[in-house]
Design goal:
Elements: E1 2-7, H1 17-26, E2 29-36, H2 39-51, E3 55-59, H3 71-80, E4 86-95, H4 103-120, E5 124-129, H5 132-140, E6 147-149, H6 156-164, E7 168-171, H7 182-189, E8 194-196, H8 218-229, H9 233-248
Parallel strand pairs: 1-2, 2-3, 3-4, 4-5, 5-6, 6-7, 7-8
Helix pairs in contact: 6-7, 7-8, 8-9
The structure holds nickel (II) ion (NI).
Length: 251
């Protein structure tokens, strides 16, 4: 059995969510952790909790929302987080890929949400794109907060820094891509420091790269990791589940 530690499951991307959940069950995906990271997708993610027992959620405002997220939104977020199947804050972080015009607002939003995570003792799911240095420095301001670095694809040096700060690396479809340097990083950092995720509908693993992703492909990522460590898939899945249960304090 596997748990998808990070995916998006919105009607905007999937016509038939019942079918997605059913496909997951048929593909050894026991539970999924859906991330809501905009005003609308947070409400949508919370709604899934009423419909599906195998769904948990993390919620928090993505850096792309930095210019439009208000203190009212964050006040509401704090209330929305108080549900025992809401298991973390995220994805939150910094994204400098599309320019740096809102860099100060991004940092402020990131810090405010880390404060919330600290206050509520919840793990965080970090989105960091082209912003490694600032992400690390801001996380260091909150040494009590732990979590995972969603969709990690950085260097071994960066991986080591995050792990030394108590974070796990969220490994997704990129690890299956041809010419990816991620397998080497995964091997060096060790099985105890990673969790797996699809980040669906994005980043579909090989051999389905380019098609729409969904949690049913999670086993392709787990297979690749079993390959990297040359271990039976049963051992790998057991270890990944332990990491996930521990990180998100799942029931
Ligand atoms: Ni995501």
């Amino acid at each position: 059995m596997f748990i998808d530690t990070h995916c998006h499951l919105s009607k905007e991307d999937y016509e038939d969510i019942d079918k997605i959940i059913e496909d997951n069950r048929n593909n050894y995906v026991d539970k999924i952790i859906v991330s809501g990271c905009t005003r609308d997708s947070i409400v949508e993610a919370l709604d899934l909790l009423n419909k599906y027992d195998d769904v948990y959620v993390t919620i928090g405002y993505h850096p792309s929302e930095a210019l439009i997220t208000t203190d009212e939104d964050l006040k509401l977020l704090k209330k929305q987080l108080k549900n025992n199947r809401v298991v973390g804050v995220g994805e939150i972080g910094l994204d400098y890929h599309y320019g740096k015009e809102d860099i100060e607002q991004q940092k402020t939003l990131f810090r405010k949400q880390l404060e919330i995570a600290q206050e509520l003792s919840l793990p965080v799911v970090i989105h960091s794109r082209d912003a490694t240095f600032d992400t690390i420095n801001i996380l260091k301001e909150f040494p009590d907060v732990k979590g995972d670095i969603h969709c990690f694809s950085g260097s071994i040096e960066t991986a080591r820094i995050y792990v030394s700060m108590g974070y796990k690396l969220g490994i997704g479809g990129v690890v299956t891509f041809k010419n990816s340097t991620l397998p080497k990083v995964v091997e060096e950092i060790g099985l105890s420091n990673i969790v797996i995720e699809t980040d669906s509908p994005y980043l579909t693993p090989e051999p389905f790269r380019g098609k729409q992703n969904s949690s049913k492909y999670l086993s392709l990522i787990a297979d690749k990791i079993a390959d990297i460590f040359d271990l039976p898939i049963e051992d790998v899945s057991k270890r990944l589940l332990e990491n996930t249960y521990e990180l998100f304090d799942l029931e």
